[in-house]
Structure formats: C-alpha cells, structure tokens
Queue: 2 jobs
Job 1
Amino acid sequence: MAAPRPLTVALVTGAAVLTRRALKRRIARSPLWPMPALPEPVSGHSRRRATTVRRLLVTGRTEIAEGVVQLRLEGAGLARWQPGAHLDLVLPSGLVRQYSLCGDPADTGAYTVAARLVTDGRGGSREVHEQLREGLEVEVRGPRNRFPLAEAPGYVFVVGGIGITPVLPMLRSLAASGAHWRLLYGGRSRGSMPFLAEVEKLGADGDRVTVVPQDEAGHPDVAAALTGLAPGTAVYCCGPEPLTAAVTAALPEGCVLHLERFSAAGGATGSGAGAGSGAFEVELRRTGRTVPVAAGQSVLAAVRAELPHVAYSCEQGFCGTCQQRVLAGEIDHRDTLLTDDERGDAMLICVSRCRSRRLVLDL
C-alpha cells in the first residue's frame, strides 16, 4: 500500500486543526453546546452596571473615631474609582453590606472603607468590627457609583456622622481644583465624627466648613445652610432619614439635590417592605424554574427559596444589591434608588413587585 503523499497529509492535518479551533470557539460562546448560546448574563445587575468580584486582604484596621473603624483592603491591579463610589463587602457570615470608598481613587493597590458600629442594627456593622481583622481575606464587589460628583458652578454638602465617607474624596478633589464648596457637618460629638481634623483642614481657607456637634450646639440649621444659593448649585446630602428629609424640604428652587441614604425613605424596614398586593409568579428564565410569590411575600424571599445564592443587603429598596434584569412583566417599582432609565428593564426584588400575573427575570 502506497504511503500518503505529503500534500494529502498536510491538507488533512490542516483541516483537523481548523475544525478543532472552530469547535473551541463554539464551546466558548456556549458552554452548553450544542444548545444555542444564551445572551450575555447580567445576573443581579443591568447591562450598564457590571461588577467585579475580588478577594482582598485586610492589611490595616484603625479606630478613627468613637465606634468607627477604618479598613485598608489590599490587592493587585485594583480598578480606579471616582468620588462617591462604594464597595459591597461580603462578610464571613454571607451578609452583604455597602461601604463608601474614602481613600485615594488613584491607589490601585488598596481600597479604604470606614464603618460605624450600629449596636441595634441587623448585624453587619457588628461583624465588621468584631471579625474583620488584619490578615483576613474578604470578598468585595465593585466599585460602583450611584453618588457621583457632578459638574456644577458650586457645591454645598450636608452630612451627618459616617455620611462623611463618600463626601471626603469629593472635598479633596474640589479643594485641589479650586472649586467653590461649603460643608455642614453634624454628629453626636466631636469624638464620634470621623475624619474631622482632615475636613477642617481642607476648609481652613475661606471658612468653608461648619461643624455642629450635637452635644455642643444641637442639630444643624439646614435651612440656613441652604439659604441664598445660586441656581445650579449642587447640594449633596448623606446621612440619616431626618437629615435627608430636612435637606429635601429646604432645597432652594433651581438647585440640584444628590442624596445617599442610610435607610429607606419614609422609614420602611425589613423584608416585609416588599410584601403587599396580589400574588403572581416569577419565571427564572436561565434556570428554567417558575416560583409563586404570595401576596405577603417579597420577590426576593420567593427567589432565594430556589436560588439561595442571590445577593441582597438592605431589604428596603435603597442599596441596589438585589437589582435584577427584567425580561417581561409589568413592574411595580417601590424602591428609592433606580433612575427612570434603569426602571425600564430592571427592578430591586427586595421591595418591588409585579402588576401583571407573571414576571420574567434574567436568573
């Protein structure tokens, strides 16, 4: 039997190589091949809000004020971020909590966050204070930014206590650029107010900073701080609900308000915030399951009964951790976070519901 000619061998070998490469590309597009490739998954987020999951090492832990610890989380090649951004921390228990970045946005080797201990809270801050020690690795998601620093002719900041954390990088940026800004900073006492010395130093030129410790001067005069502002002034507020409500009520006409809340507007609390109104069913398109949602049950609770890994945090509709993409159904939005644009194809499943009989989620 004659040996194959070299040209024939080369052609057969080349065809095999090309076939193998094509098959690898096809499988890469769809790991379930030969089933059709699914659209790009966006589980938990809209297409505009993809997040990165990393494990970072706690390399620094400092008490910077009464009941406030600052953590330095190190890792290689971290993403740059803009003032106002935050991280989702996945705590050892599995709880997810959001903490504003308060370090240097240009530092790609570490993220810095600060957390106040809330003794009557739901346990997240207590876990941060008691368990996140130097040498421990922690999973983080982000950074994400729903409180960005917008361009404006002038800025007024009204913050309470730990609400200074997202604002501090903004103040550093504005001070460096020579922009016009003022800060009203309130807290229980000077000792409880994080970053107070740095804030006062940033505002030393021009008497920009007003500090109001409650034990010395009572509550901040929000109305006076917002009187006489020029149209177009950006007003930033981060703090507890009474403070954000006061700023909202006193906002001058023509000014633009930017809020970051500690809790849901109106004081809604707990997973029951997503209950109420009629029952419906939720199709989880990617997993091929359909789950019923009772009238007294949140979408989050129903979905987690089938998919326990679905992330959540506040259960009040203001943090965004449980945001999911909606493929079909009439959404009953009950959150205080999403923009009108985002509400077209996304919902926060901890509080929002469905007006139709069926909701389809990209899960």
Job 2
Amino acid sequence: MELKLKRPLAFFDLETTGVMVSNDRIVEVSILKVSPGGKEETLTLKVNPEMPIPAESSMFHGIYDEDVKDLPTFRERAQEIADFIADADLAGYNSNKFDVPMLMEEFLRAGVDFSLDGRSFVDVQNIFHQMEQRTLKAAYKFYCNENLDNAHTAEADVKATYEVLKAQLAKYENVEYEDKHGVVSKPVVNDVEALHAFTNLSKPVDFAGRLVFDADGDPTINFGKHKGKKVVDVFEVEPSYYSWMQNGDFPLYTKKVLEGIWNEHKNKKKEARTNNPVQSSNPVKEVNRPVKKSEPSKPITDDMLKGLQDKFKK
C-alpha cells in the first residue's frame, strides 16, 4: 500500500552508546525519506561518538570503537543530516520516546537549529501496542478464541492465565524465534525452566528491575546516575549510596537483595584485609627503633617514706 503523503515522511533509526538521552551519543543514523508520489531516498552513516562505546552496546548493534575512531563526529555531519530531513515529518519504532529526543539532543550539542514545530510524528510501536493490546483479556481472545467473562476477578484471571499458557505452548511449538543478537531458537517449550529463561529477558535481580544482572552475571544498577554500573563498584566509590537506597522509597525485596550484596561485599573486603594485613608505613624504622632502657631501682630511704606519709596524710 502506498502512503498518502502531503509532504515527505522520514523514517529513521539510531544506534547509540546507550539509552540515556542526556549522556549517551549516536554512533549510527539511518534515514529513509519517502516523498509524495513514492520516491525513496536513504542516508546511512556512522559517526564517532567522542566517547567509548560500552561492550554491551557494541554486542547489541555490532559497532565497536575501532569501527568509528577515524570517522567524523555527529557535530561534523549534523547539518548534512538536518538538510536531508529538511521539513519532513518523522517516523520510527519507539521513536517518540527515544530516537526523536536523542536526535534533538545531538542537534543542540552541535548548535544546529532543527525545529520540531509543525511536524507530525508517527511512532509505529504505539500503533502496534494500542491495536494489539497486551491485556489478559486480549491474550485470552487471541490464543483461546473466547471472551473472558468476569475479567479482573482473581479466580477468573488465574484460570484464564493457565489456559493462555497451554494455548501458547500449542501455538508456538517448534516455532523459531530470533533474539536481538540474531540467535535463532525454539524457546516456547513445555518446560518450566526453559520458559523461565525466555520470560525473564531483562534478568532482574530483585524482580522490581532496580537491579539487573549484566553480561558477566554481576548485579548492576538499573536506574538513575549509576545505571549500568556494577553494584559493588558503586559501593566502592560511593558507600553512602547503599544507605540512600535502604532509606529510600524502594521495594522491601529490593532492599533485602541489596543488603545481601552489601554484606557479601563487606565480608570479601574484610577477608582480603585479613589475608593481606597492612604493613607499617616504615617497617625498617619500626625494626630499628631503639629500646628504651629502664633505670635501676633506687633503695627506699626514710626521707622517701616521710614524703609519702606527708603526701597521703598518713
């Protein structure tokens, strides 16, 4: 189906160093501009983000520091990108929440005057999520082809969830799935451990998602200024962060898990100190310090006894 356009519509996608709009940078931008009448133009380019690309980001999009170290920066290509988009409307997948804000952040850093006024924004992900609702009622209709009566009553919902899972196992038996790394598998199988692995993609440590396991299997912070950092590394540079979380508005289970990590961290440091006791700052001086010789005892005289009696009034 050909799009009915009054002016160009630019579909674009960004690959970045991370997901923090204020701190991360673009490493690749690709734009497909569709004009009224169906003409298509493409601009794809990589840029030097002027910061190291984290390993987990490189594993996701396949772009490494070595690939971009000699390329122009976004600042150097910003005007070219802005001119290519021109007055086009913007479209993407999750673009309203991420790509548009990230692009604008980079334009502002580069000093390029790119206005969003008067443009339309089409987020394809929002169409998908709104038309294909993610409610239990919608899932029951989709998988079981039945209407869910008494929705939002606990007993009806739990029975429906059970029926949906059985229908999913039947529907997706031997169906291939490709993950974000391009690995193809058949993950929906009649095995609880396998389903656990497939349905916990974010690998939360605390279920609330404040702490998640990284690629090395270590607990990391998943929010705020320390997002992406290993918990123990944060404890090292900012020990007060532990107290802040324990006294903050966080779930009790998150605090319990954090306490376990904190105690294990302290115990390891204590063990390290025990196995490697701190040496004197100047051991040679300590060894060679002269021993103070005690003076020989003086014999007790009558004058000494009289002095003691006068002192203690005895």
